[in-house]
Amino acid sequence: MKQLLCISAIVATLLVSAAAQPMAQAAGSSSITGQTLDAKTHKPVMGVRVDVYADTATPHKVLAAAMSRKDGSFNLAGLEGGQYRVELTKMGYEVQILTGLTVRPSEHTIIGEPIALHTASEEYQQKMACNSVVRPDQTGSVYVVCSGR
Fold it and tell me: pTM value?
C-alpha cells in the first residue's frame, strides 16, 4: 500500500512538472530580428551592438543585447511581449534608435526594412571617443580619455 502511494506521488509530481513545462517555455519566448546596413554603400554592417530596452518601465535597463553578424543580421531572444526601444551603436556611425516596437507574446518579430546606419561626423566621432572608458590597470580606477581637448 505504501509503495502504491509512493508511486502515485511520483506520477503526480511528474504530471504537474510536465504541465508546467510549456508555460515556462512560453515565458520570454518572443524575439526580434533585423539587419543593419551602411546608408551610403548599402552593404551589411558587422559588429553593431543592438540593445533592447523597455519603452516605459525601467527605460535604462538593457533587457537583451546582440551583435550584428557578417551579413548585418541580428537576433534578440528571450523577450516577453510588450513595447520596446532598440538602440544600435557602432563606432564611426551615429546611434540609431527605434521606439514603439511592439512584440507580441510568443512571437517572432521581424524588423522588415534593413536599418540604415549613417556615418558619424568627425565632431560626433570625437565626442564618442571622449566618452570611452579605459581601465589602465587592475586597480579598478576608471579614466575618461579625450583626444585633442
Answer: 0.65
